[in-house]
Design goal:
Bound molecules: calcium ion
Distance between the termini: 69 Å
Helix content: under 10%
Number of strands: 37
Radius of gyration: 25 Å
Structural class: mainly beta
Largest sheet: 24 strands, parallel
């Protein structure tokens, strides 16, 4: 306790001295090659040797600048302090002999952790958040134990942000990429390659009724089943229980071995808060199940592309509201088990919908499918060829002569709506009168832009 007071009072003195000379920050500098922990650490020429010393001497909300080098230590970050690598991530490594590279403890609020290579050891994540932090532009390339994630966000890590990182697993076993159990987390623009579960959102402890997560603009590749047994365990994105999740503009492509699912949304028991997922403009290509949606959940899809998977949507006990979705070149587009309500609007479906279970409700409007009569799950409004630009090359945009342009739901979409490319929804297409007339929604993920 007295030691804590001493640190606090010396920080206050440094702060007022710095303020008197016109600088507001009490940033510190760390250099493994040239530094000494007895130095002031307030300039690059008087750097600390260890990050821990640099963190200790930094003021609240200040930045610890870390020079290139290897730092075999465990760092604990709080008080809005940030860690920033001065050089390249590949040349600035925090790799302890045991435990996590960076930990933000329960109740703490850290700043950014920016630009490092970060490694955990065995069952310790590389970054362990029980408090808030922004994890930005780091490389995660360590090998961890089964079901351990490089970035683990525990329930206390509310509003953590994981942005623009690159995660890989050097030994493709059962390791996870990012695993979050906190409310208000954003996971965006990361590249995640080679995991059992690339991103897992798991509120299995049911600790908050409104548990929201945003997963956007990530590229997820190499999702794979474990070697030597267990198929269908792998996921690009796995959402489990009582979560409200927004999943936007991710690319889940080029899977690894086995039968990985693109996005799995699973609910809990009927009495638990309902799991809700909003999907928009994702590209899910080449997976086993592109979307596995099961168990007391509500899922909306808007302008997503689901192509070249074994199954597009594999679902039971779910309400699915899909608008402007393109299903193409899947072995089967949809398989409905029991208790499914499917509302499909302005969407492209290639294959007959498989009705495997009972208590199925389909409402299909302004959509393209293989048949225009039959039961409600088989009655589409047109069976015209979609007229893709080049399906064989994976280009599922509508070509200029497509019969699906301006044939979607004529009701004006909500203001600001966008297609899979970011084009406005809706636009007027090239009909007899040319472009520039009253805009109307197309069918499928793409809105044709003249
Ligand atoms: Ca591994
Ligand atoms: Ca249009
Ligand atoms: Ca478009």
């Amino acid at each position: 306790m007295s030691r804590a007071r001493l640190v606090l009072s010396s920080a206050t003195v440094c702060g007022s001295l710095a303020l008197a000379s016109g600088a507001s920050a009490a940033d510190t500098y760390v250099n493994a090659a040239t530094g000494h922990d007895t130095a002031t650490c307030k300039t690059p020429a008087h750097a600390c040797k260890t990050i821990r010393a640099g963190v200790k001497k930094a003021g609240a909300a200040d930045t610890v600048h870390v020079a290139s080098g290897i730092y075999p230590e465990r760092v604990t970050l709080r008080a809005r302090k940030s860690l920033v690598a001065s050089g390249k991530a590949s040349a600035t490594t925090i790799a302890p002999g045991s435990g996590s590279a960076v930990t933000v403890p329960e109740g703490a609020n850290a700043g950014a952790i920016d630009g490092f290579t970060l490694r955990g050891v065995t069952s310790a994540p590389a970054v362990s958040l029980s408090g808030r932090a922004t994890i930005r532009r780091n490389v995660f390339d360590g090998d961890l134990s089964d079901y351990v994630a490089d970035v683990r966000i525990f329930p206390g890590g509310t509003h953590a942000r994981v942005l623009r990182n690159h995660l890989t697993d050097p030994d493709p076993d059962r390791q996870y990429g990012i695993h979050t159990s906190a409310d208000g987390v954003t996971i965006s623009k990361n590249r995640i390659d080679g995991f059992l579960s690339s991103v897992e959102v798991n509120n299995g402890s049911f600790q908050t009724p409104r548990f929201s997560t945003v997963i956007s603009r990530n590229t997820i590749t190499g999702a794979h089943d474990p070697p030597g047994g267990g198929s269908g365990l792998a996921h690009g994105i796995f959402v489990f229980v009582a979560a409200k999740v927004t999943i936007t503009r991710n690319r889940i492509v080029q899977p690894g071995a086995g039968l990985p699912t693109g996005i799995d949304v699973s609910g809990g028991l009927p009495d638990d808060p309902r799991t809700i997922a909003h999907l928009h403009a994702n590209r899910i290509i080449g997976m086993d199940h592109a979307l596995s949606l099961n168990g007391d959940i509500t899922v909306s899809l808007d302008s997503d592309l689901v192509a070249s998977n074994f199954t597009g949507i594999y679902t039971g006990q779910a309400t699915i509201n899909a608008t402007n979705v393109t299903f193409a070149d899947n072995s089967k587009d949809m398989e409905l088990f029991s208790d499914v309500t499917l509302r499909l609007d302005s969407s492209i479906v290639e294959d007959a919908i498989q009705e495997t279970g009972t208590n199925l409700t389909c409402v299909i409007t302004y959509s393209r499918g293989p048949t225009t009569s039959g039961d409600p799950c088989q009655t589409f409004q047109t069976s015209a060829d979609p007229g893709f630009v080049d399906a064989a090359l994976g280009d599922y945009h509508l070509a200029s002569g497509s019969a699906l342009i301006d044939k979607g739901n004529p009701t004006a979409p909500p203001s600001g709506s966008q297609d899979i490319d970011g084009d406005a929804r809706a636009l007027d297409g090239p009909d007899g009168g040319g472009c520039g007339g009253a805009p109307r929604r197309d069918i499928g993920a793409d809105e044709y832009r003249c």
